[in-house]
Amino acid sequence: MIEEIKIFKDLLRKNAESGKVMFLEDNGLCFLADRTILWGDHYATHHNLTHWPRAEEFIPERWIVAEGDELYPPKNGWRPFERGPRNCIGQEVAMTEIKLMLALTIRDFDFKDAYEEYDVMKGNPKGLDLYGQRAYMMLRGGGHPA
């Protein structure tokens, strides 16, 4: 057991090593982590106007805008469950419940294809056909951020 503690000593440390730079501010200030525990504030991160324009507004479209748009989410900017050793232990349960509620909501809607409207919109009067079946191209996968 003593040998294992020696090997994994760095993993067991709560505080960073003395004199190591932990992060650098935008204005050039360095913060040293001498016996300091740094803790992220998720509320402040998710409401920071530098990274989230119009953060206090309810704008569901911010998750589907194109990259380069003002509302496009910053990479790793939305972290409701956190990551690493502080990861939320209820994340999988929450995501399963969200998927279940989405499935229960979707079943109340009727869906039908809109190939004719799509062909008119794209200027393709014949449509796409593959082995006698209507075909369509998928241009992108799931939403962001991931």
Provide an overview of this structure:
The protein is an alpha+beta fold and 146 residues long. It has a domain at 1-38. Helices cover 27% and strands 9% of the residues. It has five helices and four strands. It has helices at residues 2-7, 9-12, 42-46, 91-106, 115-122, and strands spanning 21-24, 30-32, 128-130, 133-135. Strands 1-2 form a two-stranded antiparallel sheet. The protein has a two-stranded antiparallel sheet with strand order 3-4. Strand 1 and strand 2 form a beta hairpin. The model has no long low-confidence stretch (mean pLDDT 76). Heme binds at residue 88. Its cofactor is heme. InterPro entries: Cyt_P450 (IPR001128), Cyt_P450_E_grp-I (IPR002401), Cyt_P450_sf (IPR036396), Cytochrome_P450_monoxygenase (IPR050121). Keywords: Heme, Iron, Metal-binding, Monooxygenase, Oxidoreductase, Virulence.
